[in-house]
Sequence to fold (56 residues):
Amino acid sequence: MAHTINDDCVACGSCLSECPADAIQEGDPIYKIDSSKCTDCGSCVDACPSSAIKPE
Fold:
């Protein structure tokens, strides 16, 4: 199950470097997770200061 980023995202970029699958991309206005690349490791969840990343 992939993760998604909701509207609570503040686009701080904390999640980008934490994703070992390189599944997170900058979006406008919030970041996006490519569900085909996401391995459900949860690293991004722990890195997000606004708790904007949740399992799909």
